[in-house]
Amino acid sequence: MQKPTNPVKRSSSIRNIMGYPIIKGGSHSLPRQKTIHSGWLWKKGVMNSQLSNRRWFEIKGDQLYYFKAKGDSNPLGQVSLAGNEIKRHPPLADTSGKYLFEIIAGEQRKGRPVMENFDTLLFGAEAPYEMEEWIKAINRVIYTPLGGGMFGRSIIETVKLDSRKGGGMVPIIVEQCVEYIRKIGMNEEGIFRVPGAKDDVEMLKNSFNKGETITLKEGEYKVHIVASVLKQYIGDLPDPVIPSENYDQFIAVGGLYKEDNKAAISKFRNLLKIIPKEHLNLLKYLSRFLFELQTYEKTTKMTIVNLALVFGPNILRPQGDDPDFLLKSLGDVNRTTMAIVMCQEELFPVTPDEKYYQPRDSFDNLYLKVAPPMTQDKRSMSDSSLSDLIDLERTFSTEKRDEVAQLKKEIEEQRKQFQDQIEELENKLDAEIKIREMIKIRLTDEHKARVAAEERLELYRNGIEEYCKKFGHVDISIS
Questions:
Q1: 77: which strand partners?
Q2: Which long-range contacts (CB under 8 A, 24 or more apart) does 436-439 make?
Q3: Rounded to an integer, what distance in angstroms lies between the CA atom of residue 80 and that of residue 59?
Q4: What CA–CA distance (Å, rounded) separates 464 from 443?
Q5: How high is the pLDDT of residue 23?
Q6: Which of 23, 38, 176, 391 is 20 to 30 Å from the Cα of 17, by its Cα?
């Protein structure tokens, strides 16, 4: 078993009630490494026992340390992560609805034992959001050495790690998913709105996350599955495509675009110079792709408005998690996203180092998607047929032709009206979905606040008990 940088000495004779070795406190200290993730979890090591221990956990390096209380400097134990695996479990009745996940020894014990003499350890989180954050953090530690672990990792770090595998200017997972959609999905109705089958999406996501070599072969994956994986990757970025610290600046220019688009484009160019190049390259790549995709709106039913609703909150997101503010900011975010995408040609001119995105069609022949060229049969219509049509048209009086023209105009207006109503309903549906997501975030935050309050109360009670032990019984009841 490989030891951490600053190993903590174990006592072979002292074990806790679950049978795990207890790390002796006192003179030993933790490795001087950044804490990657931390929080409260319940734990147990035997599947048929209760989750009886609530501990504070911290990930440092490739080790998961646990403590009796937050702020303790001496860990009770540690869990090895490198080379091992993580597994979700459904909530069990005997654990009061905890959200469970398990760390298990790697396949054929390629990893180290999870703990001394143990190949598995079960954990329980209070909320699904907490469980997902822990799983993402642990997976980054486990799979980064294998070229994976990109979900929840920064764009800059992912591009750097991908370069070892021949990656280019954007994360490999983004390039593969986008190119697959460009190949078979540009006419797919509801692309990015209709979700892929959950199990299939999770399977493909896990394959990417484990660092496996993925080749997205045509017909092997439904396009909605690939689109869902791409959305999840962009949505899991710890900092959005446009860094949160630049949110206010971009929102302000997005508001200017409708009033003076030339001035807005000039200001956008200046702002693009100050964001990290890895973020700039991904924004450029996605903007070009979304612009191309919106030209297929007649078949996909995904206008630029729809695409901005899907991608906007992940391209541009304010700092903080206040659900009320996030909800109120959606209009500004979508407006700014649309402006950037529709101006992508002016904002992102092709540079000599670009080889990773070649638009399929020139803008001069985009109209061919709407009006296909006349077939040879139609072009070869006989002169006599043409004469017949001309003579037939001449038989219409001016009044009849006006009636036909008016009827066509009314039909076209009705068609446009129905189309606008459909689009309005689709936008309302997307807005409702966003509102539900914000409500989920708010409920999660309220749960965290309740847990934090319980923790403070527990610390207060412990303090009172210590005081009473030291100075004797004190009546603290309110008369």
A1: 66
A2: 438/323, 438/324, 438/326, 438/327, 439/323
A3: 10
A4: 32
A5: 38
A6: 38
Nearest 5°: CA angle at 405, between 404 and 409?
Answer: 115
Q: Which residues is 123 bridged to in the sheet? A: 43, 101
Residues 321, 240 contacting (CB under 8 angstroms) = no
Contact (CB, 8 A) for 227 and 184: no
Distance CA(85)–CA(139), nearest Å, equals 8
Q: Nearest to residue 306, comparing CAs of 440, 437, 428?
A: 428
Q: What angle do CA 186, 436, 192 make, to 5 degrees?
A: 5
pTM: 0.64
Calculate mean pLDDT across residues 313-326. Answer: 82
Residue 52 has pLDDT above 50, yes or no: yes
For 401, the token pair is 């032709």
Distance CA 471, CA 288 (A): 71
Q: For residue 367, which amino acid is it?
A: Y
Of 3-7, 64-68, 371-375, give the lowest mean pLDDT range.
371-375
Q: At CA 314, angle to CA 309 and CA 319, rounded to 5?
A: 120
* Residues 182, 201: Cα–Cα separation, whole Å: 19
The span from the CA of 118 to the CA of 88, in Å, is: 18
What's the gap between Cα 74 and its chain centre? 35
Residue 92 pLDDT > 80: no
The 3-state secondary structure of the chain reads CCCCCCCCCEEEEEECCCCCEEECCCCCCCCCCCEEEEEEEEEECCCCCCCCEEEEEEEECCEEEEECCCCCCCCCEEEECCCCEEEEECCCHHHCCCEEEEEECCHHHCCCCCECCECEEEEEECCHHHHHHHHHHHHHHHHHHHCCCCCCCCHHHHHHHHHHHCCCCCCHHHHHHHHHHHHHCCCCCCCCCCCCCHHHHHHHHHHHHCCCCCCCCECCECHHHHHHHHHHHHHCCCCCCECHHHHHHHHHHHHHHCCCHHHHHHHHHHHHCCCCHHHHHHHHHHHHHHHHHHCCHHHHCCCHHHHHHHHHHHHECCCCCCHHHHHHCHHHHHHHHHHHHHCHHHHCCCCCCCCCCCCCCCHHHHHHHCCCCCCHHHHCCCHHHHHHHHHHHHHCCHHHHHHHHHHHHHHHHHHHHHHHHHHHHHHHHHHHHHHHHHHHHHHHHHHHHHHHHHHHHHHHHHHHHHHHHHHCCCCCCCC
Residue 91's region, left for phi above 0, alpha for psi from -120 to 50, else beta, is beta
Contacts of 250 (CB under 8 A, 6+ apart): 242, 268, 271, 316, 336
- How many alpha carbons fall within 13 Å on the CB side of residue 193? 20
Q: Which amino acid is at 166?
A: G
Q: Token pair for residue 326?
A: 């996030």
